[in-house]
Structure formats: C-alpha cells, structure tokens
Amino acid sequence: MRKTVYFIEGDGIGPEIWQAARPVLDRALETAYQGKHGIEWVELLAGEKAFNEPGEYLPEKTLEALRNAELAIKGPLSTPVSGGFRSLNGTLRQVLDLYACIRPVKYYKGIESPLKRPELVDMVVFRENTEDVYAGIEWAANSPEARKVAEFLRNEMQADIVPEAAIGIKPITEKGSKRLIRKAIEYALDKNRPNVTLVHKGNIMKYTEGAFRNWGYELAEQEFSGQTITEDQFSAGRKGLVIKDRIADAMFQQVLLKPELYSVIATTNLNGDYLSDALAAQVGGLGLAPGVNMSDTLAFFEATHGTAPSYAGKDLVNPGSLILSGAMLLEHAGWEKASQLVHTAVENVIVSKKVTQDLARQIQGSTRVGCREFGELVGMHLG
Ligand code: NAD
Q1: Structure pTM?
Q2: Residue from 166, 133, 136 nearest 272 by CA
Q3: Which atom of ligand 1 approaches the CA of 322 most closely?
C-alpha cells in the first residue's frame, strides 16, 4: 500500500537533514516489504522557502493540505522576524489543533550518558500542547492591560496582587486535559506499556494542575475501567495498566533515580516541555530526540531541535532526530518492521563510532562524519 506523506523541509539545517533522512525511510520500507508498501511524498512550502516563492511564511495552500492530511513530517522552522507570527510552529499547532506533543525517550547504545544505567530509560512523554501558561495570554509589567487585570483581580476577586505585576494566565480545561490523557492511555494499552503517570503540580496549583490529575483518574475510570488499575490495586496483585500520578518536582528525581518505574507520562504543557528535554539529556542528547504533534486526524512528525542557523549548509549536523521521527511515522502508519529496521540501523551506526560532530564529542575514539554521510551509513545498515 502507498500512503501520502506531506513534508516541509524547514529552514536553516532543515534541508540537509531532510535530504539525509528521506532516503533512509524509503529504503527501510523497500527492505522490509520489497515494494509492497511505500510513501508518496508531497512537498508543502513553509518558512523561508515559502517566503521566497509564494511570498508568505505559511501559505494557505499548505494549511489547507495539512487540514486534510493524516501524515506529515517537517524539519525545523525559524521564527520570522516580521510577518506577524509569534512562531510558525506555534501557529501550526494552533491552527491544526495539534494538541498532543509526543516524545519517546530511549537510550541508544554507544552514547555517553550522565546516568549509570541509561538503558533503563524507556519512556514516552505526552505533553498537552494547547493550554497552560503557554497559551500566550500574558501582559507585560506596567502595561495598561496588566494594570487593568490586576485592578480587576484586586477589586473583584480580593486577590493580593500589586498593580505593577506582569501577568500570565494559565487556562487548563477538562476537555483539553482528558483528550491528551485519553491519547496516552490508548497508546499505553495499544503498545502493552505497564503504566501511565499523570505529572502535575497539583499540590500548589490545585484548580489547574490538580484538576488535570483528577480528570485523568476520572477518565481512566469512565472510559477504561476494565483495563486500568490504581497503584493500590497493583500492589494488591491485580493486573492491568497502572494509572498513577506524581508531583512534577518529585518526578524529576524519580526519572533520574528509578527510571524503570515509568513508562508513559501524561502531563501539562510547561511540565512536559521541561521533562521531555531533561529526559532527552539523560540518555545523551537532544540531537537524537524525535517527536510528533497530533490532532484527532493528523500526525505531524518533526525534528525536536531548531534550525541551528550557524551550522546551515555546512554538512556538519546530526540528521538523527529527523530520521528517528521518520521511524515513528513508519510505526504510526502500521509499518513496524520498517520502523524497527531504522532504530536498529541508527544504533548500529552509533556503535560503529562513525558519527556527526555533536556525538563525536561524546564518544571516545569515534570518527567524525558529515550529515549526508551519517544518513548514508544508516541507509547501508538497513540491510
Ligand atoms: P537550535 O536547536 O536550532 O540550536 C541550538 C544548538 O543545538 C545549535 O547551535 C547546535 O549546537 C545544536 N543542534 C541543534 N540541532 C542539531 C543537530 N541536528 N545536530 C547537531 N547539533 C544540533 O535552537 P535555537 O538556536 O534556540 O533556535 C534556532 C531557531 O530555531 C530559532 O529561530 C527558533 O525559533 C527555531 N526553533 C524551531 C523549532 C522547530 O521548528 N520545531 C524548535 C526550536 C527552535
């Protein structure tokens, strides 16, 4: 079967990592299924490439195609200095309602990690992508808007807030929390994962972060009662997907000290941002971290790093994050065998110690290769 996948090359190092990644994905499918399955690639323009040609950073044609798409992948996009965008990524997330940001974190043999036993890390973070203090509802200190909100809060709500405060709003809804947690539970059940941990700061922010936790337990009971159990039930010997919760600060200690106890994580936007980067660093670096942003209809895979403009066009950077995001895409499309081939090939290239400069710095006795060559090596290790 052939599936349509839309791609956006991206800015800065985007085109070179894309050119290294795409052949790997085609070859993995060919090796795994000998032509029975494949991808119909369709390019969409966004970022600088779109600005140079149609003259807009995010053409309506691109958005229209993505609104009707099931699968897409992108390189990083830079934030335009003009054009009225807070960020192109932010706009894409908002317009396409990509509410779940999913980042798997696991260790690849051969990479130096600050942990004694990094191989115990195998987690998938589901981060809510549309709410929280990230919703962009904030006003600068001393601005008329902030003063007006502060005045309202003081006079109408008896809140203890000074007039000159900068103010940010933290909206967290039942619908937004439940749809994210639902995705995490469905994923855990589908992949036979042992537990889902709701990570929150509900001890302090009771009505936002605390509500996220409560809605999570409620959802598990309402929609997955036959399949999920609590930690107490687990301790009593019952079988099922364990739903548990941890306070965010304790969770940062837990993932360092007892990573084997955590499998799928569902969390609010800000916690998820911190936690997914910290976890990626635990296993040896952001350069290899893949990710996807999902709505109910579209799975939009992406390299999690930025455009690294000072490296652009120099054939120096690591295409691993985009290659592994592509492996996630293959798995999501139902092509597990091809996906597994890519994971193994990336690991084998790292073990062979032929790596791009970011990894060469971390691996003693390694040989430095360029972005293109790293992609070719992964392709050769596919079999
Ligand atoms: P960045 O991730 O682009 O770069 C930070 C540093 O990380 C680089 O200097 C480089 O040392 C390293 N790095 C990043 N990717 C690498 C790779 N593939 N291989 C090896 N090393 C790599 O972050 P930044 O400098 O904060 O942002 C630059 C631009 O990227 C900004 O315009 C920002 O808005 C944008 N950005 C886009 C995305 C996205 O599209 N998803 C994400 C983050 C930042």
Answers
A1: 0.93
A2: 133
A3: 18
